[in-house]
Design a protein that fits this description.
- The chain is an alpha+beta fold.
- It has 2 domains: about 10-170, no CATH class; about 255-380, 2-Layer Sandwich (Heat Shock Protein 90).
- It is built from 10 helices and 5 strands; from the N terminus they run H-H-H-H-H-H-H-H-E-H-E-E-H-E-E.
- The chain has a 5-stranded mixed sheet, with helices on one face.
- Strand 1 (about 275-280), helix 9 and strand 2 form a beta-alpha-beta unit.
- It is rod-shaped and about 130 Å long.
- The chain starts with 11 loop residues before the first helix and ends in a 5-residue tail after the last strand.
Amino acid sequence: MPTAGRSPQWPGADGVLLALAAVVLVLAAASTDEPSALADPRPLDVLAVALLAFGAAVVWAGGRVPAPAAAVAMALTFTWYGVGYESGLVNVVTLAAFYRLGRSDTGQRVTLAVVAASVVASLVMIVGVGGEPWLEGLTAAGYVLIAVLFGELIRSRHLLVGRYAAEAEQAQRDADRRIAEERLRIARDVHDLLAHTVASMTVQAGVAADALDRDPAAAREALAHIRRAGRDATGELQATVSVLRSGGERPTTAPSPRLDRLADVVEGARTHGVAVSLDVEPPTRPVPELVELTAYRIVQESLTNVVRHAEATRASVRVRAGDAVLVVEVHDDGRGGPAGVAGFGLRGMAERVDALGGELWHGTEPDGGWTVRARLPLPAVR
């Protein structure tokens, strides 16, 4: 497959076709069955060889200046027959020059001007000056037109092949990008899920260990929380793995977490000894599933950080949906973290928000504590 920015190689069929055409032209030009129209035709001599060599050089150099090269080749043809040569070998040079003109990227106006001038000149020299029948002049002009059109056909074919190659490369790049995005999304989901669940289970295990002898009821409740967290995590992990097995589409039997499940996340943080308040303003219009999932994960990851790192006693969760944006804010009274330091959790939040074209801010507040605030754009109402 051709790489971007590199012109595609000529297909093998084009090279074979051009080689056959060249062989036919040379054989046709070198042989003639008709008696000479000249009273004393000039035999091929040193001058003929020089003219043919000059014509070949013109065709070779015509890749950069095809229009002037075609005009010079036509003038060379007139000179060839004007000095008395009968052989049609010079026609090979002329047709090759006009083929290269059609094959080149010369503008249509320039190409049409050169072809029109050559056709008119051929008719004038063959019919007007040489006294040949009109059919001879039209035949010569037809060969010129065929050579140009053949070159244009090959050029158009190569452009089409190049476009198909570029589209195939772009499709491959898009597929690779989608695979990378899907892997990143799954990695974020697994991280958010495991970080929240493991943090919850670790805290509850500590509670159970402390209360095992003095408060068996509290120990049993903590173990029940651990079992419930493990069961929920197993269900979400199975849903995530099924995405990989189903080719990237979420199974309908395992819906994504939505805003109505934030109460469960908040309740889980409360069991760890953090007083969490929840304030969700009901959206006035439907919110896309991906936006709700992102909001859910932001709250989940933020409260996980509160439980594990913040040493906070209180936290608040606020979700407000406006006409164009969904605002998610999680604030705690803990110690927060050093500015500019972001772990996988905060990085995953930023990636989720960036994917939606939103904004994310996190840091310490002037009056203390740590805040995570996300603004998630909502699609315009139609």
